[in-house]
């Protein structure tokens, strides 16, 4: 088959009109569902039509929303951004429909015999309506609305305060000893020309903390950096915590963390706590050994330079000595390494690996080239309508994914890998059409896109990839496969619509293929000589994965534990966040905070949507390690049997089953942290 399933040809006015049409259709479906009298309310009359709408309107909805990320035409991106705002407001509106909630409630009271996925759909709708407070009396609903508005205002203020920090610290060139010339030359000078100015931004902070030789310099910078927002943001965070707790109590939850984790794989803060405590205890010996090593380096350096030795690693010492360990023990020349990762070789290897592991076949879709006029307009940046061939840019590649055994097409995806003006700035996967059943019962084929910003090839050289870009490539294409290989009945559970603390897991599992010699050789080759990656370079790369793993992971445990701690305080009291953090840093990390600072005042994750969820980073990493090291690695990283079992247990169900149950089915036991710890050298 060589045809596109979705064609992105919509002009700006067409996007605006289509978005209005999509919104009207959704409202109509919800109106009809709400109008079903209680005695006629069944799954077939209320829920199924809503499910059908989400399946059949999804493509139109993405024609409106996706172009803001990728269209080379500014007018199209702008119209798409507007459409996106309107459609997300619509989403909130639909989730607050009390009349639809009542109809769904009437369905649930019928206790019909339903298929498991239908039962889950019904339960999910009820749960989400209740989480919005629709089961509560009107005055309580009004209070929740007020709370949410105040929280979102405070969160915006919190972030704005941080972006408005313009602090610059003056240092002499001597005080910046250890930093390289390019860095020094990039700095602006103080007005009298005697000092160089260091800001609190990442591109200044990190190099200084890793490279500045003089402890006083690092200490001054660390104290300023960890005090960002301390005066303005501390009361904002304290107020947000009280509001979140109040909201949880109105909705009937013990704490905010209970409210959040209810919809996650972890399910409860107690389980998160157990997970973090276990990890913390087991990481302790490794972290202590690493701390000893840092101390030894510090002692030697103090003796050599005549600094006073205070017998401990301070907040401003950690990154400095950790960097020395990395350079000493795990030095990988990434410039040399990337000569072995020309993009065409990586792509070919990646696709071959995924074909073998998952028993699928990739087939390039040949899209007719855009007309000469369209290409010329695109080149001149003067186009105002997208090319008629349905592809937004000539660099974009399209593939079908077939099941090798049945030859059935499971999905189609777009690959758009190089930077372009106005394009989305990171690497990500976008689900464009859910693979699910359509109203007539036939299957809708899933469509997804991967956007990235890997260096483009030049006339004389292919694009060369850094190892971590190769890893990103595997990761994001992993999300694409998750989108395409899921086989659910309803759009609600399609593809990556799984619990949020599990969604990264399938992609993190696939990153492991970038750390095994067998697969690395399949995706690499020197772009000029055709040689394999030298063994010694490969060994250093593989060893570098363990660098300072104890201390870095302990720091993650610290941040996650802090997040859980402040979100499990009951009863509206003001929390001394700086003090809570300082105590936990001492007991968990073993490195004390710099006196007078408050890291929480700049901990944006906790106001910006990761509240009670910071543990998710470690959670999915630990369980992805379990899945990889307990099955794929021992059974063979190219073993199709294992891949098949994985497809069946983990990818195929999408979000139609609990992630925990899927993982248990694949592993044959409950997941644990043993494989993760072993991979980190324990
Ligand atoms: Zn991801």
From TrEMBL:
Pfam families cross-referenced by the UniProt entry: Peptidase_M3
Compartments reported by the entry: Cytoplasm
Stretch forming the signal peptide: none
GO molecular function, one term: metal ion binding
Alphabetical list of SUPFAM superfamilies matching this protein: Metalloproteases ('zincins'), catalytic domain
Membrane-spanning parts: none
GO cellular component term of the entry, any: mitochondrial intermembrane space
Chain ranges of the Peptidase M3A/M3B catalytic domain: 209-681
InterPro entries noted in UniProt: MetalloPept_cat_dom_sf, Neurolysin/TOP_dom2, Neurolysin/TOP_N, Pept_M3A_M3B, Pept_M3A_M3B_dom
Gene3D superfamilies on file: Collagenase (Catalytic Domain), Endopeptidase. Chain P, domain 1, Neurolysin, domain 3
Keywords: Cytoplasm, Hydrolase, Metal-binding, Metalloprotease, Protease, Zinc
Chief location category: cytoplasm
Cofactor: Zn(2+)
Cofactor note: Binds 1 zinc ion.
GO biological process, one term: peptide metabolic process
Keyword Hydrolase: yes
Family to which this protein belongs: Belongs to the peptidase M3 family.
Name assigned to this protein: Thimet oligopeptidase 1
Organism: Capsaspora owczarzaki (strain ATCC 30864)
């Amino acid at each position: 088959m060589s045809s596109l399933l979705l064609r992105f040809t919509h002009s700006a006015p067409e996007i605006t009109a289509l978005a209005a049409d999509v919104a009207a259709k959704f409202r109509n479906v919800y109106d009809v569902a709400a109008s079903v009298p209680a005695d006629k309310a069944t799954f077939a009359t209320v829920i199924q039509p809503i499910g059908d709408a989400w399946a059949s309107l999804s493509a139109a909805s993405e024609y409106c929303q996706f172009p803001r990320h990728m269209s080379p035409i500014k007018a199209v991106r702008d119209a798409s951004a507007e459409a996106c705002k309107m459609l997300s407001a619509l989403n909130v509106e639909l989730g607050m429909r009390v009349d639809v909630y009542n109809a769904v409630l009437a369905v649930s009271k019928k206790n019909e015999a339903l298929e498991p996925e239908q039962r889950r759909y019904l339960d999910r709708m009820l749960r989400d309506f209740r989480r919005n407070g629709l089961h509560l009396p009107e005055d309580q609903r009004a209070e929740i609305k007020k709370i949410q508005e105040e929280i979102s205002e405070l969160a915006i203020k919190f972030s704005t305060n941080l972006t408005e920090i313009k602090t610059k610290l003056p240092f002499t060139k001597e005080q910046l000893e250890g930093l390289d010339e390019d860095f020094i030359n990039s700095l602006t000078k103080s007005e009298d020309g005697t000092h160089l100015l260091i800001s609190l931004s990442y591109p200044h902070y990190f190099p200084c903390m890793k490279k500045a030789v003089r402890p006083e310099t690092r200490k001054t910078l660390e104290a300023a950096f960890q005090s960002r927002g301390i005066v303005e943001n501390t009361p904002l965070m304290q107020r947000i915590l009280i509001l979140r707790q109040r909201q949880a109590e109105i909705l009937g939850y013990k704490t905010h963390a209970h409210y959040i984790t209810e919809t996650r794989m972890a399910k409860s803060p107690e389980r998160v706590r157990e997970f973090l405590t276990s990890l913390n205890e087991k990481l302790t010996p490794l972290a202590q050994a690493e701390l000893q090593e840092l101390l030894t380096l510090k002692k030697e350096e103090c003796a050599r330079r005549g600094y006073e030795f205070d017998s401990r690693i301070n907040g401003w010492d950690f990154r400095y000595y950790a960097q020395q360990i990395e350079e000493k023990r795990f030095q990988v020349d990434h410039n040399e390494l990337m000569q072995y990762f020309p993009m065409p070789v990586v792509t070919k290897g990646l696709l071959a690996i995924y074909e073998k592991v998952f028993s699928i076949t990739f087939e390039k879709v040949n899209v007719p080239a855009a007309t000469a006029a369209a290409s010329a307009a695109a080149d001149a940046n003067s186009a105002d309508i997208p090319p008629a061939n349905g592809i937004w840019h000539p660099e974009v590649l399209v593939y079908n994914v077939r099941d090798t055994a049945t030859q059935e097409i499971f999905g189609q995806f777009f690959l758009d890998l190089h930077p372009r003006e106005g394009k989305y700035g990171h690497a990500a996967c976008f689900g464009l059409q859910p693979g699910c059943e359509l109203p007539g019962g036939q299957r809708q084929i899933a469509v997804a896109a991967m956007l990235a910003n890997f260096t483009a090839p030049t006339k004389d050289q292919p694009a060369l990839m850094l190892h971590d870009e190769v890893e990103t490539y595997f990761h994001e294409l992993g999300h694409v496969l998750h989108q395409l290989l899921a086989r659910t009945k309803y759009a609600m559970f399609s593809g990556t619509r799984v619990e949020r603390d599990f969604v990264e897991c399938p992609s993190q599992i696939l990153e492991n293929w970038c750390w095994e010699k067998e697969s690395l050789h399949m995706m690499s080759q020197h772009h000029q000589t055709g040689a394999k990656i030298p063994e010694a370079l490969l060994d250093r790369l593989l060893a570098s994965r363990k660098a300072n793993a104890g201390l870095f992971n302990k720091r993650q445990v610290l941040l996650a534990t802090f997040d859980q701690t402040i979100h499990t305080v009951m009863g509206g009291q003001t929390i001394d966040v700086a003090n809570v953090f300082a105590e936990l840093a001492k007991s968990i990390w073993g490195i004390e905070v710099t006196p007078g600072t408050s890291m929480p005042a700049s901990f944006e994750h906790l106001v910006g949507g990761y509240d009670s969820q910071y543990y998710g980073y470690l959670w999915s990493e630990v369980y992805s390690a379990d899945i990889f090291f307990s099955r794929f690695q021992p059974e063979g990283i190219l073993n199709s049997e294992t891949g098949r079992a994985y497809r069946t247990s983990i990818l195929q169900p999408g979000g139609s089953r609990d992630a925990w149950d899927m993982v248990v089915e694949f592993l044959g036991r409950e997941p644990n942290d043993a494989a993760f710890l072993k991979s980190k050298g324990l």
